[in-house]
Amino acid sequence: MTETPLRRTASLAVAALFCAETALWCDRSLAADAPAQISAAEANAARIASGYDAFSRGDIDAAMAVFADDILWHVPGRGPLSRDYHNHAEVLGFFEHFMKLSNGTFRVKVDKVLAKDNLVVVLCTESAQRAGRSWSSPQVHVWTVKDGQATVFWQYQGDQQAEDEFWSAPK
After folding, report:
1. φ, ψ at 10 (rounded to 5°)
2. What does the radius of gyration of the chain's CA atoms come to, in whole angstroms?
3. How far apart are CA 85 and CA 90, in angstroms?
4. Predicted TM-score (pTM) above 0.70
5. Which residues contact residue 60 at a Cβ distance below 8 angstroms, ignoring those fewer than 6 apart?
6. What's the whole-number mean pLDDT along residues 116-127?
7. CA neighbours within 13 Å on the CB side: how many for 51?
8. Which of 4, 164, 7 is nearest to 76 (CA)?
9. Beta strands 83-86 and 67-75: pairing type?
10. How far apart, in whole angstroms, are the C-alpha atoms of residue 86 and residue 47?
11. For the chain, which terminal residue's Cβ has fewer other Cβ atoms within 10 angstroms, N or C?
12. Percent of the chain scored above 90 by pLDDT?
């Protein structure tokens, strides 16, 4: 398999996640004030996890309640969904757009939630069907949480090019 810049980026992202996961869990045992950090981190992780749970049940209002009103939502790439979304209205429009493109088949399965302080990392698998094609991809979602609300979201795809092609496919 030829290494492309996208594959190299994906490989680096996976390596970074492995390091991040190790650091997040190792750092807990080394911190002098670990109980306070664990409590805040666990609360943030639970809050973010509740948003995924609400989304998977179709309770978009409950999912949106996890986000700060002025959330900044980053979606990389070159596809029709790729851009920055600012605030609830734009994020809701983003949700509506990918659900329309996938005829409501989009799903996200949470594989693992990691947290430290105000940072929550979600390892997940996204999938959808579109134009007679199925797509599934490992993803990394990185959240910043402040005062119990998600303020920033970054999405990292397992294969950016494949995801861009899937969402850009004719309907």
Report:
1. -60, -40
2. 17
3. 5
4. yes
5. 54, 92, 95
6. 97
7. 21
8. 164
9. antiparallel
10. 20
11. N
12. 75
What would the two tokens of residue 132 be? 């007679």
Closest CA to 81 of 61, 95, 63: 95
Question: Containing domain of residue 13, as a range?
Answer: 5-168
Look-up of token digits 């594959």 = 7
Residue 38: both structure tokens together: 């664990």
**pLDDT tens digit string along 8-35?**
444 444 444 444 454 444 344 434 455 5
Tokens of 32: 């002098």
**Residues comprising the chain, all counted:** 171
Beta bridge partners of 6: none
What is the signed CA dihedral for 126, 130, 135, 141, rounded to 10 degrees?
A: -20
Count of Cβ atoms closer than 10 Å to residue 94 Cβ: 15
> CATH code at 142?
3.10.450.50
- Region label for 64, one of left (φ > 0), alpha (ψ between -120 and 50) or beta (otherwise): alpha
**How many structural domains is the chain composed of?**
1
C-beta of residue 169 within 8 angstroms of C-beta of residue 130:
yes
